[in-house]
Each structure stands twice: as structure tokens, then as C-alpha cells.
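From the shared-data thread, chain only:
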Amino acid sequence: MDTEFDAYTTFTIGVLFLLVGKMLNKRVRLLREFNIPEPVTGGLLAALIGLAAYLTAGIEFTFDLDARDGLILYFFTGIGLNASLSKLRAGGVRLIILTVICVGYIFVQNYLSVSLADATGLKPVSGLLCGSVSLVGGHGTTIAWAPTFINQYGIANAMEMGIACATAGLVLSSIMGGPIARGLIRVFRLTPNTDRHIDFGVMYGDKQEKKIDYFDVLGCWFIMNLCIALGSGLDEILESFGIMLPTFVSCLALAIVATNTVPPLLRRWNMNVRWPNDSDSLGLISDISLGSFLVMSLMSLHLWALVDLAGPILIILAAQFVLAVIITTVVVFPLMGRDYEAAVVAAGFGGISLGATPIAIANMQAVTERYGAAHKAFIIVPLVSAFIIDIANAGTIKLFLHWFG
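Structure, as C-alpha cells:
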């Protein structure tokens, strides 16, 4: 029996479980100790309730996620508005290094999945559905590529296999990044930035009240809406030229351009307009948008699909999890500088490698809420995961299909 929730009700339930997640993280020390993101706590709790309803009463909850898809545009627009040239220059070398690591990781991830698929009796090409198609790409990439695997390579259950792997990856990545960062910070005795103005959220134990002005929030909201409207228009223009990118990428790019061009013009024209970069208002809107997006994404997961995963697929997923942990600790952390910022990037890479960009940001947010700010990490990771990953992943998937198809 299906129980459907419209967009407004879905959003309301999402906000409820975001509040539940925040309260649980405040009360349960273990969740804070291992840097489990608050939206992950609430979202997985909601998903478990949905699983219990399905297993005990045969009730399947279906959520209208239209509101969720709009929230992610606000979050990435906020990232772009904070990306000043000075911050981009400061993260320049690390940005290039992380880009190279991520592109190389996609190749290794796919080679591992194809090899294990062949070794366990599956079609080698089907291993890609347990590789970057579902793990780095997530549910959206899986849905986009599944017809190709069905029609051209005869894998009838490609959609089910890919969706199940993407679901497993989302769960694994949401509980992986924070504990890894915690371990690195403790083992290497890393000292976080003393700056208590973190990019998103509020640090645990921070008694300082944030004073947010009404006009600051309204102005910030207007500028974000303007960037989203123009970014959506840019997305349509790119599509007309055959360039297909997620809408949030266009919004992110436009916000970066705006925050580095508009404020100097406003100063030149002596216009007293408050630009929202690095403001508490921008942080608040971005935090609520990301948290609500993640809760709605997780609570809509059909966890019972994981029960149907066959032995070979479970073997591949287990190997992918081990690979992600090794690459994060042995490659990402050392090459990113072995400092606190590197540990926060490592938490983000946990989301990139098995889940999605929002999970990566939530992992990093959970770490900074406990230890302190890491401004470079919040510029580097979103830029790489938003701009580079989708393009590199699409090219790599096509290459592996040519090799093993």
C-alpha cells in the first residue's frame, strides 16, 4: 500500500526530522564524537521508520521532492557567493591536487568494480553500475545511464542494481567521512583554526548569540533568488548548445562571478548595498537549505532495496568502501597538506567517493561544528565536486563502456 505525500507535506516532514536530528546530536555524545551530520541523523531515522512500516505493514511512503530540488540551488548559490578571488587563490594548489585525485579515483573505482564483477561471474560492464555510475554519480546519474545498460548491453535489472548501489553509497558515505576526520585530527594532533565563524551552522558549545538583521536576511534572500533565476536561464542557454549540466552548477558559477564583480562596482558607484558574502544571514539560509535537502533525500530512500542486493554486488560495495577509506587516509589527507584543513577535506572526500556533494558538505560541516572553521575546504570541495566530477565521470563511464562493453 502506497502512502503519498505532496511537496508541502514532504518539506514539513523534512523540517521536523531536521529538528529531531539536531536534538539527538545535542543529546547523544557519540553522534557528536564521530561527527555524524545532524541531517544524516534525522534523515536516516526517518528512513528507518519507513523501512519498519514497509516490513511490518507493507506501507510504502512516497515523497514529492520538488521542494527539495529547489533547496539545493540555494545551498550552491551560497557557496558561490562566498567564493571570493582571495579564497580561490588561497586554495589554488590544493584545488588542482584534489581535482587530479578525484579524476584518478574514478578510474580506480571503475576498474575495481569491473574486475570484481568479472571475477564473481557478472558481466564486466555491469560492474560500472556498482562503480562511479552509482557511487560518485548518485541516483541522478544512475537513472540517466540505466537505459544505456538495459538497451545496449542487455542488463535487464540495471536500474534496480544501480539505484540499490546508490542508496547504499549514500548511507555509507554519510557515516564515513566524520569518523575518518576525527581519527586524523586525534592521531596527528591537528589544531583547528581559532576562527569561530564557521561557514555553515553553529559550533557545539558556542554560547555567542548571532545577531541577524531583518534587512540582511531579506537582501541576502533577494540576491540568492536573483542568482538562481539568472543561473537557471544560463542553464537553458547551455542546454540549447548541447551542454548538459545540473542546474546547481550554473547557479554556482553565476554566483561566483557575481560575488567577484558586483561588490567592486557597488563601491565604485558609492552605493551602500550590503553584499551577503561571509554573512550570518547567508550562512543561516545555506545551512537550513542543505539540512532540509539532505533530510528529504535520506528519508525518501527505500532501504528495503538493500535487502535484495546479491552476494557479488555486496562484495563489490564492500571493496569500494575499503578503497574509499584507504584513498582518503593514504592519498587525500597527505597530499592535501596533513593539516586541519586536509582533515576536513578528507571528510568531504568521503561524501564524494561514495555518495554525493551534499553529503560531502554535511560531513565537513559536522567536523567544523565540533572543531572550528576550515574556510579553504568549503571552497575547494564544492568546486571540485560540482564542476569537475560530473564531467570527468561522464567521460570515464563512456571510456569504460568502450573498453569492456
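The CA atoms of residues 21 and 42 lie 4 Å apart.
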